[in-house]
Amino acid sequence: MPTPSSTFEILGERKLVSPAQRQLAAWCPTKDLIAYGLVDQTVALYRMNGQKVWQTQKYTTGQRQAKKEHSVTQLCWRPDGQLLAVSYDNFITRIVDVQTGRFGHQVEMEDVTEGRITAIGWVDNRDPATEDAEQLEPKTKTDFINIGGTLKDDNLGYLFGLFNFDVSTVLPKLSVLPGVANADITFSSKQSLDSLINVPSIRKEDTMDVLLMGTSKGSFAMNVFDSFVVGSMDLSSLIGENDRYSYKITHHQSTRSLKTHLLLTTSQLRPKYRPGKEKGQGPTVLHALDILFLSNYGPYLGRVTYTITKVQHLLRYVNETVVAMAAEWKAMEAVETAYMRAQKEILEAPEGQTAGLEFFELLITGCAGEKMKEWLVDSLGEKGHKKWEKVYVNGYETLRRLAHEHLLPSCDRLIVLLSKLRGLARWTDKDSSLGLDPVDYSKLLDLVSGLMAICHEFMGRVNYELDLFSAFIFWLKTAYEEFNSLTEGNEPGAQNEGELLVDTLKVAEFIGKHLQNSILAAYFDKTEWVWREGETVFAAFTKVVDTDGEATGSSGGDAVKNIISGSGSGLKKRESSGSFTGAIGSQGSEEGPKALPGFHQISTRINEVSKSIFSKPANAMKQQVHVGQSIVVHNEPYRILDIRLCDDGGASGESVWYIAMAKSELDELGKKVPASESTIVMIRIAIVKNGTLSSVNDVSCTRINAPPHKVVSDLRFTDNQTLLVLFYDEDNTDMMSIRCTTPHMAYTPVPKSWWELPASPTAKLTDQNGIFQFAMTLAGNYVYNIKRVLTFNHNDITPIALTVNVNRGRRLGSVLDRERLRWIIFDLGVVAEEEKEEEEEREQDESTEDDEFYSEEFKTPAENP
C-alpha cells in the first residue's frame, strides 16, 4: 500500500446525551455545528467543543389515548445554515430555527398516505465563490444603476432604485406574540419572527432555494423558499410507460442552476410482474429530473414565489394572533362564569336563567335578598372582586393591544405584499401559463381589508365595554363594602365629598347587554360560516334584509364607514342579540352574534381563498417537472454509496456526477461477515441538456479493491477529487482519503446496453444490466493515490459512520462509535490542489478585469477620443 502524505488532525472526542441513529447526522454548512438525530426521536445540536446548544422535544400528535409519538427519518440544512429541516414518519417536515431550536413551521406532503420520507435535499442557486464580490463597490455605471445609484445626467439610477424598492422593509416591525397554553405559537420568539418576517432576506432577484422530500413509495414533494408548496408528484408516473418497479428515493442532488436534479432510488418489482415466488427486488436506478419552470419564468418566478412565501408567513402570524386573542377571551370568560355559577347555585336559579333581575333589583333599590348578600359578601368577597377586576381589565387591555399592535400591522404588510402580487399578475396576460389572475388577488385584498375594518370595530367595542365594566365593578365594590359593614355590625360610612359616584346608566347597560352575554364573544365564535358566492366581508356585515327577504347592502367606502362607525345593520344585530332577560349568544335568534362572521371565520376564509389562489402557480409549475433518462446503477437495491456533483457544466452545459458504491458484507452491528471481501466501484456520469430535457452523454466506471482482509463500512466524498473511506477489519478501522476521480484514476466507458433502463415493463434485468455489474467484469485496482490515513484501534473506538462538512470554508468531519454515544471530530485538511488552482485563476481573472476597468475609466481627457 502506498504511503500517505499525511494523517488527519484529531480535534477532539465528544459524548452525546443519548445514543444517535447511525446515518442521521448533518454538519451545518456555514457554522461549526452538527445536528444528530437521536434514538429517543429528538434532534440535538452540538458545537465542536461538545457543548449541546439545544435539543428538540419529541414530536407527538393526537390527544390522550390517541396520542402518537413520531420518529425522525431525515435531517437537512438550508444552504445558508439558518434553518434545519427535520422529517418525520408521518410525511411532515418541521423547520427548526438554529438560533432557538424551536420549530418554526412545517411542510406537509400532500396526497401521500403510504411509506415514509427517506430522502431530503435543500439546495439553492447561489454561487458562494461570488458572494464576497457582490459586496464590493460598483465598478461601472451599469453596476451603479443596478444598486440604485443616482446619475447626475438623467437620474436613471434613482428611478431604478424606486423600481426595486420594497415598501415592506420600512414598515414597523411586528411584535412577538404571547405564548398560549396547548397551542404551538411560532412567533413567540424574536428569532423566529425576525427570520420569517421582520428582517428582509438579502437576495438577488434570480436567487431561489428548493426543498425536495422523497418517500419510500417513490413520491416526492417540492417546496420553493421552504414554504411555497409546488406539490407532490409520483416518480413512476413521470417516467411513463415502464411501471414495472415501485421506487424508494434514497438520495437527492442538484446542479447549481437547480434545473437538473438527480434522484437515486432503489426499487421493488410490482406484484403484477412477479409470477409465483419470483424475487421481488428491483434495480438501483438514477433518474435525471428536469425542472423546466426555473428556466421558463426566470426572475419573475422568484419574485412571485418569494412574495407568496412572505404572505404565507404573515397569514400564519394573523392566525396565531387570533388564537392568542381567543385564548385571552376564554380566560376572561372562565373567571366570570365561575363567579356567576356560584351565584346561581346560591340563588337556586333555574337552568338557563341568569341573575340579571337580581342585579337590577340591587342597582335600583339598593336592597338585596339574603342569598344575594351571601353571594356578594361570602362567595365573591374582596378577594374575588379584586381578581375579577384584575383579570377583566388586563384582559381588555391585552385584547386591545393584540388587535392594535399585532393584527392591524400584519394586515398592513399583507396589503402591501398582495398589492405587489396583483401588480405582478397584471404584468403578464390573464391567461398566462403561471396561472396568475389580478382578480384573485383583489379578492384577497378585499378580505384582508374587511378583517382590518372588523378589527377597528372590535377595538371600539373593547374600549366601550371596558368603560361599562369599570362602572359595574366599581358599583359592585361599593355594594360589597356596604353589605360587609352591615354584616360586621358597623354603620356604612358617609360618602365624602369628591368621591366617585356610581354611573347607574352604564352599570345598567353592562348588566343588561354584556354580563354573561358580551358582544365580544361573537368575534371569537368558531361556528362554520357559509360564504355565499361572491360575498365579501363588507356585504356580510352591512347587508339589510328587505321586505321580500332578499339581502341587500352597501359596498365600498360606505361599507367601511358603516363598520367603523357602528351604523351598519350587521352591527345592530350584534347589539340587539343580548338583554338582561338571560338570552345568551348560543340561545339567541338567527339575528344574534352567531349570524355574523368573527375573527375565526374571516381568517379561515382568507386561508381557504389564499390556498386556492396559490395552488394555481403551483399546479402550473408541477406540469413542468419531467424525468429525463434513467440509468441502471445496480440490478439490485444498494445501501453503501454516496453521490457528488463535481462539474456544474458552465458554458459547455455538461454536468459531471460521481457515484461511489461499496460492496461489503456487514452484519447489523457493522461487523465484517467472515470470509467476505470488499470492492469500491466509482461511476462517472456526464449529463447534457438536449433542448429542455436531460440526456446521458457518457457513462464510465472503475473498480477499486479494498486492502486485504478489510471491508468498507462507510464512505463520503470530501471534494471533487477525494473520497473518504472507512476500511474495517477485526482489530482496526483505517480511515483513508483517496484521489479517485479523473485524471487520478482511469475510467472505462460503459456500453449503453448495460445502464439503460428498458422501456418495456415486461423486460427483465439480468447480470448483463447495471453499471456495477459491468465494473465487476473489469480488473480491479488496488488502493493508491492515498492522501491521508488514520487508524482507529478497536480497543479504543470502532467508527461505523462518517459525516463530513465540505462546504466553502468548512473542512470538518466526524465519526460515530459503534456504541453511538461517542464521536470524534477531525480536520479534513486543506482544499485539494486543483481547487486552489481554480481559485487562483479566478482571482487572476478578476484582477485583470479590474485593471482593464480602471485603465479605461481614469484616462485623461486627451487620451479619450
UniProtKB/TrEMBL annotation:
Lineage of the source organism?
Eukaryota, Fungi, Dikarya, Ascomycota, Pezizomycotina
| Disordered: region residues | 568-594, 833-865
- Stretches of Polar residues bias are at 577-589
Q: Which terms does the UniProt entry file under GO BP? A: anaphase-promoting complex-dependent catabolic process; cell division; protein K11-linked ubiquitination
Domain Anaphase-promoting complex subunit 4 long, residue spans: 286-485
Q: Where is the composition biased (Basic and acidic residues)?
A: 856-865
A GO-annotated cellular component = nuclear periphery
Q: Which Pfam families does its entry note?
A: ANAPC4, ANAPC4_WD40
Q: Which UniProt keywords apply?
A: Cell cycle, Cell division, Mitosis, Ubl conjugation pathway
Q: Which residues form the Anaphase-promoting complex subunit 4-like WD40 domain?
A: 26-124
Q: Acidic residues compositional bias: what residue ranges?
A: 833-855
Q: Which organism is it from?
A: Orbilia oligospora (Nematode-trapping fungus)
Q: What is this protein called?
A: Anaphase-promoting complex subunit 4
Q: What's the superkingdom here? A: Eukaryota
Is the keyword Protease in the record?
no
List, alphabetically, the SUPFAM superfamilies matched: WD40 repeat-like (SSF50978)
The keyword Ribosomal protein belongs to this UniProt entry's keyword annotation: no
